[in-house]
Amino acid sequence: MLGLLVVAVLGFPVYWMVNTAFKPAKDAIDPDPHFFPSTFTLENFKRALEVADFWGPVGRSLVVSLVVVVIGIAVGMLAALAISRFAFRGRKIVIVGILAVQMVPLVAMIIPVFLLLNDLGQYDRLTGLIITYLTFILPFTVWTLRGFIVNIPKELEEAAMVDGCTRTGAFVRVVFPLLAPGMVATSVYGFIQAWNEYLYALMLMSQQNQTATVWLGNFITKNGTEYAPMMAGSTMMAVPIVILFLLVQRKMAAGLTAGAVKG
Amino acid sequence: MSAAETTTAKAPPVRQAPPPGPGAGRHPGKPAGKPSAPGARTGASVPWLLLAPCLTVLVLVLGYPLYRLVALSFQKFGQPQLWGFQEAESVGFANFARILGDGEFWAVVLRTVVFAGGAVVLTMVLGMLIALLLQRVSPWVKALISVVLVASWGMPIIVATAIFKWLFDADYGVLNWLIDKLPGVDMIGHNWFASGPQGLAVIMLLVVWGAVPFVVITLSAGLTQVPKELEEAARLDGAGAWGVFRFVTLPILKPIIVMLTTLSVIWDMGVFPQVYVMRNGHPEPEFQVLTTYSFDKAFVVNDYGTGSAIALVTVFLLLGAVAVYMRQMLKIGEVE
Fold first, then answer.
1. Beta-carbon separation of A106 and B334 below 8 A
2. Residue B21 lies in a domain
3. Would you give the distance in Å from CA B177 to the centre of its chain?
4. Is B311 part of any domain?
5. Which of A24-33, B94-103, B251-260, B307-316 is the least confident region?
6. % pLDDT > 70, chain A
7. pLDDT of residue A154
8. Number of structural domains in chain B
9. How far apart are CA A210 and CA A212, in angstroms?
10. Residue B31's pLDDT is what?
11. What is the rounded distance in angstroms from the CA atom of residue A99 to the CA atom of residue A82?
């Protein structure tokens, strides 16, 4: 019972988004709310897709998120390996440094980042956005991948090395395959973070280069919000994200908590 | 859920043998770093080579702006300086003196702390309750809750904000309509955003709603690692449900709870789009929190120096909470 109540309360906003996406636009702004679409319509999707250029912003978001994830995983993986498999002087400082980066609220950095990109001629460029996103994707990637690497027993590598593998060979043949699920989980999470980012996308990109999240904001105008097409647009954006999430959230949580409980 | 389980199948042995006692193996007095690790015998340059790309990115894209943020907060930096017509001139502590001497600033600080504090407490309590509930419900309810959690977690903040704004809309909002159905209550046309506290309460709900899934999912992962034997032993010794939770579950989960709380503090102090979008990009004075206040000063008034000073004060405010988290993380770093 309690469980179902939780579902109802937590799930209502999501339900409302999908529900509204399919109902006629005038039902969306009816003082008597319609809990089911009276007539089932795809008009809102059409409007979002055709009238308000959907693919441009979504394409840009896709490019930015994918590049951020690929670079983030490649670079983050090396760093995670260094802090979880090597004992070296300064390791602690590096760990604290990487974690400390998470402490700086993004919005606090928006002013200098804006000025920096302005100076570099990267304002309103996708590359500029990609570089800035790396700052919050990277620490997260490093920390989570560390969690996954720690869970792979060192003995496996040592055994491979006894069998004649080099250290690199042992890593590539033994650890890497075991790490794959963790990397997928981390990538998905990083992708979603980049995909959903709003503030930097709003500040660093102009109207014609806006990303999907900012584009959604276009439906909010001075004369009121066009809820129905906005919900249609966000439903289309959210569906793939939710599916990705469903696939990896378990792994994700395991990586995040690894080492926290067991030490 | 089923998909998640299939990926688990080929995963490495995630679970290690449970420690002999709660935390018994935690302080083995093993010197941090140094020998034992197999890596020790490789050249010391290898880890640094591995770290180099990551550190380079972070230093360049974060280190420099951070330095610039500090520098800016001591400068007069407005439109002319931005366009390069004028050199930025140093004004010492003038920016800080101005904001710290401004009553409005302190009101904003207080509002932010109350807002973030409330959001964090609500998030953690609700998150813990739902995580515990998840352990008890039947599999299909559990699956249903998980789907809902993930769906709300994966929803873009701006979409969530738009939906909440609408649920609480004065004329077309579902909530007013629903409350109005209660006998003797007239809520039609009630404007939640007419007053700061009420409006911020709605925004707090939105923040909590968005943050709860992460907390629940992480805590659930943690709960699966609590050794069943310990709970049973406690129960045999006569502990009630609360006792087991208080003296067995909670201590074991403590590291995770500290981590989640600290992250929540950071995130909730840094709430921006929720307030910004909810108030159509122009939060009224009684809706201003530190982030939007700093943003307004910088980009609306074009006073980047003052905006930076406010941002810097925010960072310092966070350092207190961060200290706890840091110690925790260091401990984790050490035992490995």
1. no
2. no
3. 32
4. yes
5. A24-33
6. 88
7. 82
8. 1
9. 7
10. 41
11. 15
Determine the longest span between alpha carbons in chain A, in angstroms.
Answer: 74
Cβ contact A75–B145 (<8 Å): no
Closest CA to A93 of B164, B51, B45, B271: B51
Average pLDDT over residues B115-144: 90
> A220-221 and A224-225 as β-strands: parallel, antiparallel, unpaired?
antiparallel
Higher-confidence position of A82 and A2: A82
Domain contains B293: yes
pLDDT band, residue A68 (cuts 50/70/90): very high
Predicted ipTM > 0.95: no
Helix, strand, or coil (residue B57):
helix
Which secondary structure element, helix H or strand E, spans residue B279, and what is its range? none
Give CA separation, A195 vs A166, B31, B75, in Å: 39, 42, 35
Share of chain A above pLDDT 90, in %: 7
pTM of the predicted protein model? 0.80
What's the rounded mean pLDDT across residues B136-164?
A: 83
Residues A189, A177: Cα–Cα separation, whole Å: 20
Look-up: residue for tokens 């699920």?
Answer: A181
- Cβ neighbours of B60 (radius 10 Å): 14
Residue B190 sits in which domain range? 71-334
Instruction: Give the pLDDT of residue B278.
Output: 85
| B46: nearest CB among A86, A198, A234 | A86
Give the CATH number for residue B84: 1.10.3720.10
Supply A178's token pair.
């075991």
- Distance between terminal CA atoms of chain A? 37
Tokens of B151: 């769906």
Mean pLDDT of chain B: 78
Range with the poorest average pLDDT among A59-63, A114-118, B304-308? A114-118
Count of H helices and E strands in chain A? Answer: 13, 2
Hey, are the CB atoms on B220 and A237 less than 8 Å from each other? Answer: no
Does A137 score more than 80 pLDDT?
A: yes
Kindly tell me the burial class for residue B65, based on how many C-beta atoms sit within 10 Å of its own C-beta (0-12, 13-18, 19 or more).
Answer: buried
Contact A246 B147 (CB under 8 A): yes
Q: For residue B47, list chain A residues with Cβ-Cβ distance below 8 A.
A: 82-83, 86, 88, 91
Give every CB contact of residue A160 below 8 A, 6+ residues apart in sequence. Answer: A169, A170, A173, A174
Q: Is residue B253 part of a domain?
A: yes
| Cβ atoms A16, B177 nearer than 8 A | no
Residue in chain B closest to A130 (alpha carbons) equals B61
